[in-house]
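Good day; I would like, with your permission, to put a structural problem before you. A protein sequence and the structure tokens that stand for its backbone fold form the material at issue. The record follows directly beneath this note:
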Amino acid sequence: MSFFGDLRVVLQGSRFRRLFGTRLVSQFSDGIYQAGLAGFVFFNPEQHTGAGEVAAAFAVLLLPFSLVAPFAGVLIDRWPRRQVLLLSSLVKALLAVVTAILVAGDEGPAFFVAALLVLSINRFFLSGLSAGLPYVVPRDKLMMANAVTPTCGTVASSLGTGLGLAIGMIGGEQALGTGMILFVAALGFAGAALVSLTLRYRELGPHLEEETEEVRAALRNVVLGMASGIRHVRDRAPARDALLTIGGHRVLFGISTLITLLLYNNTFTDGGIAGMAGFSMAAGLLALGFFLGAVATPWATERIGDDLWIASLLASAAVALLAFGLPFSATLFPVAAFVLGFVSQGVKVTVDTLVQRHVDDAFRGRVFSVYDVLFNATFVLGAALTAGLVPQSGVSAPVISAMVVVFLLMSSAWFARSRHVDSSMSDQRIT
């Protein structure tokens, strides 16, 4: 069945639509909120941000996830996941109002604390969505659901960023414009809480009565629970290799994001609203790539398999960086963003499905929390590793060339894995 045929089947399920609607409203609001953060942190017209400052901002805003996610996973495996969606949305709404007030008061440190709390609490929300998805779609539609939900959420986030940018243009580059953006985001988070109420209290699990004594004992200790999730993945090669790949990819994605921010803030434009508008255009093409990558992935994996598809995507990223990134052209660079978006979402949808297929439900929340830690920490690691290598202009041919080499190495590993799997299957048929 085609992508859109499968999409129609998935959307026919009322339970899926309710969870899907909760995600869309929340991630649209995330996009608005992120536009406010970007305007305040990265595109301040009074300064031209350098690589070290960008990396530091990423660390402040993203690394707390590494502390929150282990607790999120264990609690999501114990709390009703509908309640996780509801309460996290309400808390985000309250904190978004707080950040809007702090911007007006020019309270930089307090603003960062409130903002990182919003982003950290969002881990509960996103982990709850991932862990609850298998409850609302049939197992054989998980690939399709993983293509639809995160991708449409990313597109919704990009649309929200566009709306946030428009609000900022109306309010101007001063604190009023940023405060308006953040307040509208707060309204959106409150809306997501209302949509989540269309789901029943226990509709997204977990069903603890189905767990073993060993699992219930692990739930009583956060550290042991996290460790058990890691052991669970370690013993399942498809999920383990998929997580290692997404970690490597996110390091490269962190590098490319840092370079893109610097180029639009210091080279392609003079920063401020113009820089944010240019970066938003590139982000829009990135989102289009996300969408098309998700459309193509179920079709491609059905025909050539998961391993070969990941290998092909990673090789495509290397080619795109050489052709469209290395010239450092304001005209060509957005094309590189589009291809990297396609690759990123194609890899992520495939990895999501591999993890969900090869992880038991009792451990799914903890495993996706490990996934979240890896997803964000490796992104920051990529930015940190290159902060001292990339100039303020963002133009660095050696760094782009190194990224090409790493993409090709990762692609080769998946090509080799694909051939090994095919050989094993042939041997089994002969036997």
